[in-house]
Design goal:
Active site: 47, 209
Number of helices: 15
Largest sheet: 10 strands, mixed
Order of helices and strands: EHEHHHHHEEEEHEEHEHHEHHHHH
Number of domains: 1
Structural class: alpha/beta
CATH architecture: 3-Layer(aba) Sandwich
Radius of gyration: 21 Å
Keywords: Hydrolase, Lipid degradation, Lipid metabolism
Protein name: Patatin
Strand content: 5-15%
Pfam families: Patatin
Distance between the termini: 13 Å
Motif (GXSXG): 45-49
Number of strands: 10
Shape: globular
């Protein structure tokens, strides 16, 4: 098992879009015997990808079982398991946030957001077996599991990691790795999409979605010892032609663009930097490479080749009434040019469609994945 400790899995954020990652992971099961352990002992996740990563790490001793359990949860998702979605709860929550502005500054303030995601906290406590993480680490099935969140207190990207005893914390410009005993609060913090879900307090700091300040997503697996990183993202393909807007973009469209930027752009920049470093190292002699203290890192990136927004539009009417009303008030309808819906539609049939798409994409690239993972 130790010989595989250079392989890593990196799962990016993306709200409900993270169901796609489950499909790709399911396709990889075809490469492994039923009782095989996790093929990538270093797992790093951000936002909804952090929840998937931790779920998989809990069953590091049996990869097939971990994927099956994760798939069952996603296929049976209901929006009310993630956020309060009935009409009274949605608008009562917003009213409480507004009334808070009338209180004095000395009065304890509750976190504000568009939606109340306390049901997700309950779901995670029911389904996450955090006690299995240490057991899997001790037995060598898992080298490290990392969950990244963004600190609103320091504006740094914080990677909370639990792993082998030889792993050390690190600190770099605007990012750091901290040894932690992972729990529900870390996952709630990492997946707290800005403005949509409330911030989370851990120790003396307040945290939000891990993608906000994550300038170098590949940094975490590399610090944890990875040399080969499989990246499963949720960025949909760009249109071939530039889309000409006929009017000013709506608030909903702008919000969708902001989320797309938060969840995807930094990964592109980091991959470009990694490829450039790899190329530079290839031009150096062995002696020169050793002097740099750098090593080449291989990456394989898998992203969907379909438009999630178009799929989400087909399931718009499955949104609970309260959330659907709220979406209409902020300008999101089935024909809206906003990706916000695809991030918030935690609905079984929609998630099943994304899982199936991920599975098909994974099967198409199965030979490539197998060669990369040396399976």
């Amino acid at each position: 098992m130790l010989e595989r400790h250079r392989f890593s899995l990196l799962l990016s954020g993306g709200g409900a879009r993270a169901a796609y990652q489950v499909g790709v992971l399911k396709a990889i099961t075809h490469l492994l015997p039923r009782s095989h352990s996790l093929p990538f002992p270093i797992i790093c996740g951000t936002s909804a990808g952090a929840i998937n990563a931790t779920s998989l790490a809990c069953y590091a001793s049996c990869y097939h079982l971990g994927v099956r359990k994760m798939e069952w949860v996603w296929k049976n998702f209901r929006s009310e398991q993630v956020y309060k979605s009935d009409l009274t709860s949605v608008f009562g929550y917003l009213l409480k946030n507004q009334l808070q502005g009338l209180q004095t500054k000395d009065h304890p303030r509750r976190p504000t957001s568009l939606l109340d995601n306390s049901p997700l906290n309950h779901l995670l406590r029911q389904n996450m077996e955090f006690n299995r993480l240490d057991r899997n680490i001790q037995r060598g099935y898992l080298k490290a599991i990392s969950v990244t969140a963004s600190s609103y207190s320091t504006n740094d990207s914080i990677s909370f990691f639990q792993g082998a005893s030889d792993l050390q914390p690190w600190r770099r410009a605007k990012r750091q790795g901290t040894i932690s005993q992972l729990n529900v609060e870390h996952l709630m913090a990492s997946s707290a999409i800005p403005l949509v879900f409330p911030s989370v307090r851990i120790a003396e700091q307040y945290y939000g979605d891990g993608s906000i300040h994550q300038l170098s997503p590949l940094s975490t697996p590399i610090h944890l010892g990875a040399e080969k990183i499989l990246v499963i993202g949720v960025e949909q393909p760009k249109p071939d032609k530039k889309h000409q807007l006929q009017h000013h973009p709506s608030s909903a469209m702008i919000a969708g663009h902001l989320l797309d930027t938060i969840f995807a752009d930094t990964l592109h920049a980091d991959l470009e930097r990694l490829y450039r470093i790899n190329h530079t190292l290839s031009l150096l002699s062995d002696k020169q490479r050793k002097a740099t203290h750098l090593k080449p890192i291989d990456c394989l990136v898998i992203n969907p080749n379909v438009n999630f927004n178009e799929i989400a539009a087909r399931y718009y009417q499955r949104l609970p009434r309260g959330v659907r009303t709220l979406m209409r008030l902020i300008g999101i309808r089935p024909d809206s040019e906003s990706s916000l819906l695809s991030y918030l539609l935690f609905d079984g049939p929609f998630c099943q469609a994304l899982i199936q798409q991920g599975y098909e994409d994974g099967v198409q690239r199965l030979e490539e994945i197998g060669a990369f993972l040396e399976i």
